[in-house]
Design a protein that fits this description.
The complex is a heterodimer of chains A (99) and B (485). By secondary structure, chain A is mostly helical. Chain A is built from three helices and two strands. Chain B has 485 residues and is an alpha+beta fold. The chains are: A mainly alpha (99), B alpha+beta (485).
Chain lengths: 99, 485
C-alpha cells in the first residue's frame, strides 16, 4: 500500500489531528517507511499461518461483579483541560444538520 | 397510495442495544447505578487514563450466555475483543471495546406475532458484548458541551436481527418480546425511556419479486416502541414515494422526530464512520466452555414461552396465558398462587379481575400488592366450598383484606357475616316457607311453568338475608317441588 498526502489527511481527520503541509510531507515519508518495513513479511509464504494477536495462550482472567470505588469526582476532573464543578467541559458539539 | 405500497416489499432489520444491570462496569469495577451525580461513578480505566488495563466482568459473560440460550443461539467458545475506533468527547479512550469477528452468540431466533397475529420467527444474526459511551449534555451550558462519564464502560449486549421484518408492527412486537425476555432473564430492566434498551433500524424497500435489495437507510434516536413503529412506517412510505416520483433513495443515517412524526437526515454517507477495527491487545480471549453453558442453562429463570405453554397445559385459554406471562412479576405471583390452589381458572380470573383492576386503579406494580397469594388461594377455596359467594369474596372481603392484609379470610368472613347457609337443615326451613307462601304458584310450576323457580329462589334468598348458597338452595327448591308432585 502506498501512502499519499490524501491518506494522511484522512487519518488525521479521523484522529482529529492537524498538521502543517510540511508535517504532512514528513508524515507521508515516515508512514511509507513503516509500511515498507512491514511489507517485508509479504515476501514469505504465509499460507496457513494464523496471525499472531496474543503473546501468550492465557485466558482472560475474569473479575467478580463487585463495585470498588477508586476515584472521587474531584480526582476524575483534576486533569481535565476544562471543567466545571460536575462536568468535563468540551467545545460545543453541534449534532444535527437540517434536511 | 395503499395500492402502490403493495407493489413494494420493505426489508427491515433491527439492532438493539441492551444495557446490562450489573453492579460494576464491563471492564472496570466502578458502579453503574442510573441517575447518580455526574462523574461520580468513574475510575482511571473508564476515564481512559494511560497505563490502565481493562478486566472482564464475569457477569457480562453469564448474561450474554443467558440471552443466547433463551434466543436459541450457538454460543461461541473462544471470544476475542476488538477496538472500534472513533473520536468523540464522551468516548475517553478513543475506542470502544467490542467484539468484531467473534460475537459470543451466533444465529438463533425469537418467536413473535406478525401484524395479523400469526406466529413468526425472527432470526438473529449475532449478539455481541460491548461497552457504553459517556453522555454528552448540550443544553445545560450555552457555550460548551458537558460530559458525564458515569455511563462510560457500562456493559451492553448488541442484538442484531436478520432483515426479516415487513412493517412497523412486527418491529414493535419484537421489541416487546425482547424486553420481556431480558426482564425474565433478569439481565436488564429493558427500560427504553431510561435508555437501557435502544434500537436502530435499517430499512430499504424493493419492488415485489426483485432479488436485489434497495438502498438501505438507518434510522436512530427513537425513544419508545411506538416511535420505532411510526418511524418504520413513515420511512417505508417516504422511500416508496421517492422511488415512484422518479427519485432515488440515498444511503444515509436519519433521525426520528417524534413531534413531527417524520425522519430527517442526520449523517450522509460521505462522512460515514471508518472504525478501523483491530484486535484489542489488552484483553486475552475469554473461553466459554460447554460445562459453563450447561450450568447457566440449569440456573436459567423460567422463560415466558415456557410458562405460557405450562398455563395452556393447565387448561387456561391462550388469552389468559398470554396476559399472565406479559410481565415476569405477574407470572411469579400467579406461580405462587397456583402452588396454593388447584383451581387454575379461578386463580387466573382473580389476577386478571380484582387484582389487576386494583393495581390499575392505584397505578401500582404487583410487587407492592398487599394481599399474599396464599390468602387469595384461601378466598378461592372458600368460594369453591360454597362458604362465601364469589361476589362477597371478590368484593367486600377483597377490600377488607387490602385494608388489613394480616386478617385471616375465614375469620373475616364470619365477622363480616358473609358465611353462606349451605347447610341443608337451616336452608330447608326457608324453602318450606317460600313454597308455603305461594301455593298457587306451586300448582302452576307443577303444571309446567318451570320459569317460576326464580320466584321461589328469590324468596329463599330474601328469607336467608342473602346468605343462602344459591347453588344449594336451588337444588333444595327443585327437590321439594319434585316431592310435591
Amino acid at each position: 500500500m502506498k501512502i499519499d498526502k490524501k491518506e494522511v489527511e484522512k487519518l488525521a481527520h479521523l484522529a482529529r489531528l492537524e498538521f502543517t503541509e510540511e508535517e504532512k510531507e514528513s508524515m507521508v515519508a515516515d508512514m511509507d517507511k513503516i509500511l515498507g518495513f512491514v511489507a517485508k513479511i509479504d515476501e514469505l509464504d504465509l499460507e496457513g499461518v494464523e496471525p499472531l494477536v496474543y503473546m501468550t495462550d492465557e485466558e482472560a482472567p475474569l473479575r467478580k461483579d463487585v463495585v470498588v470505588e477508586q476515584s472521587t469526582r474531584e480526582e476524575a476532573l483534576k486533569n481535565a483541560p476544562d471543567r466545571d464543578t460536575d462536568y468535563f467541559r468540551v467545545p460545543k458539539v453541534v449534532q444535527r444538520k437540517g434536511e | 397510495m395503499e395500492d402502490i405500497l403493495k407493489n413494494y416489499e420493505p426489508v427491515i432489520g433491527l439492532e438493539i442495544h441492551v444495557q446490562l444491570n450489573t453492579l460494576s462496569k464491563a471492564y472496570s469495577s466502578d458502579a453503574t447505578e442510573y441517575g447518580a451525580m455526574p462523574n461520580t461513578q468513574v475510575n482511571m480505566i473508564s476515564l481512559g487514563h494511560p497505563g490502565t488495563l481493562p478486566r472482564v466482568n464475569e457477569k457480562v459473560i453469564e448474561y450474554a450466555v443467558r440471552l443466547g440460550i433463551a434466543c436459541n443461539c450457538t454460543i461461541r467458545e473462544r471470544n476475542e475483543y476488538a477496538r472500534k475506533n472513533y473520536f468523540y468527547a464522551d468516548l475517553p479512550k478513543g475506542y470502544q471495546i467490542t467484539q468484531d469477528t467473534t460475537p459470543i452468540c451466533n444465529g438463533g431466533y425469537v418467536e413473535i406475532k406478525d401484524a395479523d397475529g400469526k406466529d413468526k420467527k425472527i432470526h438473529l444474526t449475532r449478539i455481541h458484548m460491548e461497552e457504553d459511551s459517556g453522555k454528552s449534555i448540550h443544553d445545560i451550558d450555552p457555550f460548551n458541551t458537558l460530559i458525564d462519564l458515569n455511563r462510560a464502560g457500562v456493559p451492553l449486549l448488541e442484538i442484531v436481527s436478520e432483515p426479516e421484518f415487513r412493517n412497523g408492527q412486527e418491529a414493535y412486537n419484537y421489541l416487546a418480546e425482547m424486553r420481556k425476555l431480558v426482564r425474565y432473564l433478569d439481565i436488564s430492566d429493558g427500560n427504553m425511556e431510561e435508555g437501557s434498551l435502544r434500537c436502530d433500524v435499517n430499512i430499504s424497500v424493493r419492488p415485489v419479486g426483485r432479488e436485489k435489495f434497495g438502498t438501505k437507510v438507518e434510522v436512530k434516536n427513537m425513544n419508545s416502541f411506538r416511535n420505532v413503529q411510526k418511524a418504520i412506517d413513515y420511512e417505508i412510505k417516504r422511500q416508496v414515494e421517492l422511488i415512484e416520483s422518479g427519485g432515488e433513495v440515498v444511503q444515509q443515517t436519519r433521525t426520528f422526530d417524534a413531534a413531527r412524526g417524520s425522519t430527517m437526515v442526520l449523517r450522509a454517507k460521505e462522512d460515514a464512520h471508518d472504525y478501523r477495527y483491530f484486535p484489542e491487545p489488552d484483553l486475552q480471549p475469554v473461553i466459554v466452555r460447554e460445562d459453563y453453558i450447561s450450568r447457566v442453562k440449569d440456573n436459567l429463570p423460567p422463560l415466558p414461552k415456557e410458562l405460557f405453554n405450562k398455563y395452556r397445559e393447565l387448561g387456561l385459554n391462550e388469552y389468559d396465558a398470554s396476559l399472565l406471562t406479559e410481565s415476569k412479576e405477574v407470572a411469579l405471583y400467579f406461580e405462587n398462587l397456583i402452588s396454593h390452589t388447584g383451581n387454575y381458572k379461578a386463580a387466573a380470573n382473580w389476577i386478571m379481575g380484582p387484582v389487576k383492576s386494583y393495581l390499575n386503579d392505584k397505578a401500582m406494580h404487583i410487587e407492592a400488592f398487599p394481599i399474599t397469594a396464599e390468602k387469595i388461594a384461601q378466598l378461592i377455596e372458600m368460594v369453591d366450598a360454597g362458604k362465601v359467594s364469589n361476589s362477597a369474596a371478590s368484593g367486600e372481603m377483597f377490600r377488607a383484606l387490602i385494608e388489613n392484609p394480616d386478617q385471616d379470610p375465614a375469620t373475616l368472613a364470619k365477622e363480616m357475616n358473609l358465611i353462606q347457609e349451605s347447610d341443608a337443615g337451616a336452608l330447608m326451613e326457608h324453602v318450606h316457607a317460600a313454597l308455603a307462601k305461594y301455593p298457587e304458584k306451586v300448582e302452576e310450576y307443577k303444571a309446567g311453568k318451570k320459569g317460576l323457580l326464580g320466584l321461589f329462589m328469590g324468596e329463599v334468598m330474601k328469607l336467608s338475608g342473602g346468605k343462602a348458597d344459591p347453588k344449594v338452595a336451588s337444588k333444595l327448591v327443585q327437590q321439594e317441588l319434585e316431592k310435591q308432585q
